[in-house]
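Quick one, T. Sequence first:
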Amino acid sequence: MLTVLEAAELLRRFDHVLILTHVRPDGDTVGCAAALCAALRALGKTAYLLPNPGLTDNTAPYFAPYAAPEGFVPERVVSVDIATPGLLPDNARPYEKRIDLALDHHPSFEGFGRANIVRPKAAACGELVLDIIRELTPLTQEIALPLYVAISTDTGGFIYSNVTAETHRAAAALMETGIDYRTVNKRFFQTKSRVRMQLEAAMLADAKFYDSGRAAVLAVPLSLLERFHATENDAEDLSSLGPQIQGVDCAVTMRELRENVWKFSLRTGERVNATEVCRLLGGGGHARAAGATLEGVSRAEAEEKMLTAIARIVPDFKR
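Structure tokens:
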């Protein structure tokens, strides 16, 4: 694994760079990619982001200025906030074996790049990217704004348990450049569409509770999205709902991506290691936030597999 200085030195030697983000892109992967692209351009490099079809109205504005034009042929490929090649969007698959540098912060990071750097203790990949960029070029508002998006969104507005003093110091450094962080906070943490609120109400009404109320399972079947004519914008980060329920320290959100294809998002307290649970299902992530995807299973079967996995990690888990 590279150090921050080594990663920065490697990037200085790169040009005509294509930066990859993960499937169903969140603020961290988009913010890191946009900031790194801006930093490379500040060095006089040619750099773009590979278009990602999963962008939402919230993340797209930070991505758009850096999207690669059709026909761009990269000399170097970099991935950000991607723990495993399985999280690459379909249009990124041709670059899977060509990733020259992979930057990540997940404990489950597979080190698939020709060169790799990971910081598992970072609450957001944006913290790592910030340190690398500081070695490359002065911090500008153009760089700082998407990095603030990265760090603030991946920490749930700085409330998750993996947030450290270093996370706040990073955010403070970004704010000191004069960025409009208030608009970011309003957009991501204080604004919901009516459809989103209807989705949340339906999820809560249908929620199942286990382990004396300490574990909650909330489902988002395709039929629910169709019922409210919900878009990806409405369904963004629905996994944040379960952990808000009083008394719950193990929140499972299961979303049906396609018929009989279920994506799990697990958010936990200290009692349950989310990474270990999701690893049993072929996924991974952080100790308090992880995910996995199961294909070819019904809703009931998917839920049963998740509960079984939790019980294997937490012996006293009560069904």
